[in-house]
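=== Structural record ===
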Amino acid sequence: MRAQIDRFRSKFRSRLKTGAAAAVLALGASLLAPLPLAAPAAAATPNDYCQGQCSDILPPGENGNATLAQILLNQIFGTQPDHAEDQLGPYANLATGYQSLTNATINNFFNDASFGVPAGQVASTVSPRSDVTITRDKKTGVPHISGTTRYGTEFGAGYAAAQDRLWMMDLFRHVGRGQLTSFAGGALANQGLEQQFWRAAPYTEADLQTQIDWIASHNGARGQQAYADVSAYVDGVNAYIAASDSGRYFPGEYVLTGHKDAITNAGTIEKFKPTDLVALASVIGALFGTGGGGEVTNALSLLAAQEQYGVTEGTKVWESFRERDDPEAALTVHNGETFPYAVRPDTPRGTAMPDAGSVAEEPLVYDRTGTGATAKAAAASKSAASTALSANTRGMSNALLVSGAHTASGHPVAVFGPQTGYFAPQLLMLQEIQGPGISARGASFAGLSMYVELGRGPDFAWSATTSAQDITDTYAVELCQDDVHYLYHGTCTPMEKLERTNSWTPTTADGTAAGSYRMQVYRTEYGTVEYRGTVGGKKVAFTSLRSSYMHEADSVVGFQMLNDPSAVTGPASFEEAVQHINYTFNWFYADSQHTAYYNSGDNPVRQAGVDATFPVRAETAYEWQGFDPAHNTADYTPPAQHPQSVDQDYYVSWNNRQAKGYDAAGFGNGSVHRGDLLDDRVKQLVAAGGVTRAQLTRAMADAALTDLRGEDVLPNLLKVIRSSAVSDPAAAAAVTKLGDWVTAGTKRKETSAGSHTYANADAVRILDAWWPLLVKAEFEPGLGSGLYAALTANLTVDESPSAGHGPTGAHAGSAFQYGWWSYVDKDIRQVLGEPVQGGLARSYCGGGSLSACRDILVTTLKQAAATTAAQVYPGDENCSAGDQWCADTVIQRPLGGIKHGKISWQNRPTYQQVVEFAAHR
């Protein structure tokens, strides 16, 4: 058998097709899965006021664990473990089935999210303790956890999480600790991932324990309960580890990465600790729950603007691109209410602009050896640093809610969910938890699933989108003595050095040759060092201070309250619950009578005159008010100053701005934003009245297939070109194709289900090729190459589905959040002589001349039309060159040994709910 496994090892990385079936069979039934359990009658179902009108979906499937034998079968024959991808098909099918969707057919594309499991649908039950039962349904295998004690309930939640996501949980606790390569191998992706997240949240073990202790010591009875819940949850995880190890049905990745031996069962799966949950939370918070940063990059582009135009005009130009409070931006709170935060001061104080040419990024990686020292490894480090230091937060997720005053039933309707990317297994997992003080069903991040984080209670549902308001500031810390000492309140103080040393050797799963490196971060009272430079000729370190740093687990109390039916009974108590969440999210609520919205996050109160957009001097006068560096706490803006609303006619959010006066932390929140794709559609539905769940779902699905540039910018581009007759045959043909696509709705959609060919494919190709060409030709001559390059560092030009250079990368589904579409829209409307609110400080296309602008557009359009599909879509490890459909596809990125097929592009939440409650307690 050892020889058979060795043979598999040599072929695994090329995705075995033939010749290893004997190895699979020889492994024996003991490695396939735990023995199935008897299926008793379903437990009593708690009160459910949704009455069959709550639905949800989370591809690819609930089961994210696979034994070694199941991995081999998947790699060789493409077979899937039970419930590994049974939600992928319905999710994908909405792209071609949404136009005929009715309320009666919603669950052809979603799961029934009612509480409980009907008796005839019980697939299995297991009771890891006498006080908890985990029931799984036949259709999806979702765990329904029912406990008679609080400890047993949370123990069951941990046990179920390990059943479904143990390997992924283990991966991400190592990511959060900056130890992924030593655990899973030195692949370039692993190197980049651990560097990205450890740079953002470097902690010692003592730091992690401090954050666990803080939960109980600073949150009263709820904090003490949360601490007990975490302990019980971890006990449940470890109970499953012990059972699966002794039963030999643990995830097969432990064998493939060398942690377990398939023959002797030698080796160890490390037990979980409460601090592992903080490490996991730091990854999720860095991905989805922070905002701000990028102040050094902002300063560099402002300096470039001032160099190009002079200080006064350059500042005016820069501010017009910054779009801090753009009057044309889509808003979630659109009733005119204003919530000032982080606004530009009239007279800035304490700003620390770096001296021109002095800024250098702080290195993270040292002492490279082997495959950690290659040019490709250096490139992976550069990419990871760019992502970690960018203010373009991975803001995904969307929400559509309509008040009962505008629905057919008179009850609110909501379609919402987090857009967390696509992985195999998924970062999120579905579950239902019923126990003392807990009643909820929905999605949770694996390893943090002691509570449902997004989902529904007995008579209400909630969800969130990333808000990314500014909770991260950059301080210019004056150095003294040498490069690792700084002035803190007048005293020369040593920086604290945090280090991680990782090494790896080849394994079956990752054949990367041996290598190693050391990661190093310096920490000060003002946060961690990101750049160095000079200010006024004095050497400084530019540090990053995030209000949620050292508080990665504080939000647990808010989630606990959302799961407690006695804590949330309506909009006011819902808002009170999410006020305990210190990460930056937009929270949405719907019950049978009300809708509500609240923006969460620990927003620091800054000193008067401080401009949070730029670095600030590290002096007492410019610190956050009430700042305590020992615990990284400060005074935070009170709840009344956070954007919020109850029973507005409708709400939409797709990471657009929250409300008037609430400063957007980064660039790209102007007249054209993907939030407009939702706002335009929902506004029309509300105007017509009688909105149904199916109609709101159709609006979401239609926006999910729409090219934002095509719908909101292309018509005016064509208007400029058509301002004179188009005589050039190539240009005329391209204009006709693009015009036909506009008429058809600018969808990136198959001609028919499974055709793998887009309707209007040529028009899609032309716009994909044209956009970067026209932006450069439109803006670079007027801005100058230096300022243009600096502004594109602040905001990428494009993020089409196939653009691998955007913040989300290729095959990630999410698209059109970051790009220059607002700039192009405002500039082109200025050229056309149309009214523009909050316009750019200057006209750029053709210097404001319609004819000159038209010449630029025609020239670049002809160039784009002549660009072949193979040039526009050059191919990658998943797609051949020129395959347009494949270039756009969504791929569940493997985090383990199981792989899934591609699905057509959709720009929608990963986990999604469709809800309409018919009654209330």
Notes: The mean pLDDT is 93. Residues 220-247 form the longest helix (28 residues).
